[in-house]
Amino acid sequence: MKLRPYQAEVARAVVESIQDKLGLTFSVEIARQGGKNELSAHLEVLLLTMFMAAGGRAIKCSPTFKPQTIISMNRLKERLNDFGFAGLWLTEAGYMVRLGNAYQVFLSADESSSVVGHTADILLEIDESQDVSKDKYTKEFRPMASASNATTIHYGTTWDERTLLEQIKQTNLELEKKDGIKRHFRYDWQEISKYNSHYRAFVESERERLGEDHPLFLTQYALLPIHGGGGFLTHQQIAQMIGQHPRLHHPQERGIFVAGIDFAGESEQLEDEALTRPGRDATVVTIAEVIPLPTDAIIREPLIRVAEHYAWVGKSHCELYPQMVDILNNVWRCSRVVTDATGIGEPVTSFLRSSLGSKIVPFKFTQRSKSELGFDLLSAINSGRLKVYRQDGSEDYLELMFELERARSVYRPNQTLNFFVDPADGHDDYLVSLALAIQAAARYVPRKAKGRNV
After folding, report:
1. What confidence score (pLDDT) does residue 252 get?
2. Distance between terminal CA atoms of the chain?
3. CATH number of this structure's domain 5-189
């Protein structure tokens, strides 16, 4: 088996624990796309081979059956074929792979899955452990290894101090101090890059795109945990957003413009109470210019310059509708407009779409979509692509800065982010409108010229 040195280090420790019946529990953090799944599949092939005569069961669980468990099962089948076992292994019950008398069982760790009754006497694997419920693991999966004191291994990337993986990791680090047996293995992107120059180039481009302090870069590649919530943006990030270009009240030259619209209205009833924004009473439109970069630039995404704001308080959507159509279509000729289409914003978005067509892109707020909205906003800020017009003393500018400074963030165990302004502090209309404008810039696709060869 051809494994990279860091993969081989983990494999040796696991096999030694199994052969010597030590029953150790390992935690393995490998940067995203660093070969964690290949390590797991190779280990499974090796153990099936070792126990094909004597028999036994290894169990692997993933946070979901579709697609994660199915992907893991298919990967094992491919590796078995690669090592010459084609025609010798069998699939049983749709979730077990058998080689001789040895079984590799694949289960879902979803909260609703029924897994009680299975026993792991070879190895218990917990894939993406940071996404597995602590209660589910403790009550239903951990006991599977008890009868045979089977070795257990947790794979994943870090998130925050509340995850199962972080809990296992901290326990392992304490045990290592006592007996000197290495139980925690950590390989960040720089370690993996020693063996793969293409990987280094990719991660360095991600660092440029997201910013080194972006939560996804920190957790997925640098393997540094996020510590709770707090302020959404630092003073340095806000300062970085302030550009040198003047505010525009109309396009001064032909350019590409997009918009984000946050509609005033009553708080929407969403799946997550933290997503609601009680007391929101302004409709805000953020106009931004999109400046594409050369294809050979380090950062491929375009520059985004906020050009203008429109805000209305106490006006009905019926009153605003013709004015918004005129602003978006005739004044700025926006190529893309992303609107808050949740709750009361849905019918207004529908009306705008009937007048302006497919350039109106509805955005539905859910826990996950708002998280992606926040991550994309952070990426645009950290990479230096987003710039707001320079200070002009206007109420729009002051309100935007106020909301940026007061915005809070909450990082959830399921690796999602929420950002908002506490209703006690004010509103977040400008903040949300800005984030939607970033989406409009990201979704803008230049039209290709069509013609005939003469």
Report:
1. 81
2. 57
3. 3.40.50.300
Residues of the chain with CATH 3.40.50.300: 5-189
Closest residue by Cα to residue 248 from 54, 88, 388, 69: 388
For 154, list phi and psi in degrees, rounded to 5.
Answer: -110, 125
Q: What is the mean pLDDT of residues 354-360?
A: 95
The bridge status of strand 336-340 relative to strand 256-262 is parallel
What's the count of helices (H) and strands (E) in the chain, helices before strands?
14, 17
Assign 50 a pLDDT band (cuts: 50, 70, 90). Answer: very high
> Which token pair is 89?
């292994």
Tens of pLDDT, residue by residue over 271-290, are 343 343 344 469 999 999 99
**Pairing, β 123-126 against β 256-262:** unpaired
Largest separation between any pair of C-alpha atoms in the chain: 79
Side-chain-side CA neighbours of 382 within 13 Å: the count stands at 22
Query: Is the Cα torsion angle 192, 132, 42, 17 positive or negative in sign?
Result: positive
Task: Tokens for 236, please give them.
Answer: 């340095």
Q: Are strands 96-99 and 102-108 parallel, antiparallel or unpaired?
A: antiparallel
Query: HSE (CB half, 13 Å, CA atoms) of 205?
Result: 12
Give the pTM.
Answer: 0.78
Report the C-alpha gap between 234 and 409 in whole angstroms. Answer: 11
Indicate the class that CATH gives domain 229-443: alpha beta
Alpha carbons 6 and 17: distance in angstroms, whole number: 17
Is residue 233 within 8 Å of 407, Cβ to Cβ?
yes
d(CA 284, CA 259): 10
How many Cβ atoms are within 10 Å of 347's Cβ, its own excluded?
12
Where in the chain do CATH 3.30.420.240 domains reside?
229-443
Q: Is 20 strand, coil or helix?
A: coil
Distance CA 423, CA 268 (A): 14
What pLDDT digit, counting tens, does each position of 106-128 carry?
Answer: 999 999 999 988 999 999 999 99
Strand, coil or helix: what is 191?
helix
User: Which two tokens mark 450?
Assistant: 């069509």
Tokens of 406: 């007061």
